[in-house]
Amino acid sequence: MKKIMFVAIAMMVSMTTFAQREVGTLSLQPRVGISAADFNNTDDTKARVGFIAGAELEYYVSNMLGISAGMFYSQQGAEFEIGGADFTCKLDYVNVPIIANLYVWKGLALKAGLQPGFKMSSKLEGSYAGFGGSTDMDDVKSIDLSVPVGISYDFGRLVLDARYNFGLTKIFEDSNLDSKNLSFQLTLGYKFTL
């Protein structure tokens, strides 16, 4: 009896998963999570841990391929120390990932695409011996372009998504600084079939 129940549940989960990827259908996935962002080409920075939230719309080209476009608010930047003072470079973006999702096994998808990001704010916060302050960073470019790659798994309608974004464009207008954004994002979402 237990085997029959297990097989029945497995078939229902399988049908639900495949029904969500029916050719020509759309799904909406609101998601929230955390990000750990840093700059490349620097030795003295460490990751800024932040928040990410938004949604993606996915169109199923086939039962193995989906194309998605989304919009996410993402806290990025980096942390560093100079002369005993702690600084946080807070770069907040609205990112618009355009992703190809290749479903390789049941709910498992490999992802790759292109992501323009639009700067919402850029501040430098510092503290030393209990005193602190912040200032706007005017030399941060308004558009950031990156390549996201990742993996996701659908647990029925729940979606766990992990991505790493490799920056393509320099962060700062100053040509002497060659730093680009790097970020790891882990989000949990819920899939609505439209």
- Structural class, by secondary structure, is mainly beta
The percentage helix is under 10%
Instruction: Calculate the terminal CA-CA distance, rounded to whole Å.
Output: 36 Å
Could you tell me the radius of gyration in angstroms?
Answer: 20 Å
Weakly predicted, low-confidence segments: 11-19
- Estimate the strand proportion: over 45%
Number of helices: 1
Report on the biggest sheet.
11 strands, antiparallel
Outline, from the CA principal axes? Answer: elongated
Using DSSP, what is the number of strands?
11
The helix-strand sequence is HEEEEEEEEEEE
Mean pLDDT: 88
Question: Describe it for me?
Answer:
The chain is mainly beta. It has 1 helix and 11 strands. Strands 1, 2, 3, 4, 5, 6, 7, 8, 9, 10 and 11 form an 11-stranded antiparallel sheet that branches. Strand 6 and strand 7 (131-136) form a beta hairpin. The longest helix has 18 residues, at 2-19. The chain is elongated, with a radius of gyration of 20 Å. Residues 11-19 have low confidence and may be disordered.
